[in-house]
Amino acid sequence: MDIEDIKKASDIIWEQSVLPPLKEYITIPAVSPGFDKNWEQNGYLLKAAQLIETWCRQLGLNGCDIRLITPQGRTPLLLIDVQASDTKHTDMVLFYGHIDKQPEFSGWDDNKGPWKPVIENDRLYGRGGADDAYSVFCAMSAIKILQDKGLPHERCVLLIESAEESGSFDLDYYLDEYQGIIGTPSLVICLDSGCGDYERMWLTTSLRGGIFGVLTVKILTDGIHSGGSGAVASSFRIMRQLLDRIEDAETGDILIDELHAPVPEHRLEQMKVAAQVLGEDIITAFPLVDGATPVTDDRVQLLINQTWKPTLSYTGIDGVPALEKAGNVLRPKTSLALSFRLSPTADPQKASRKIKSVLEADPPYGAHVTFESPKTGNGWEMPELDPVLDRIIRQSGLDCYGREVGFLGEGGGIPLMNMLSKRFPKARFIVTGVLGPHSNAHGPNEFLHIPFVKTLTSTVACILSRRCGTH
Question: What pTM was estimated for this model as a whole?
Answer without folding.
Answer: 0.92
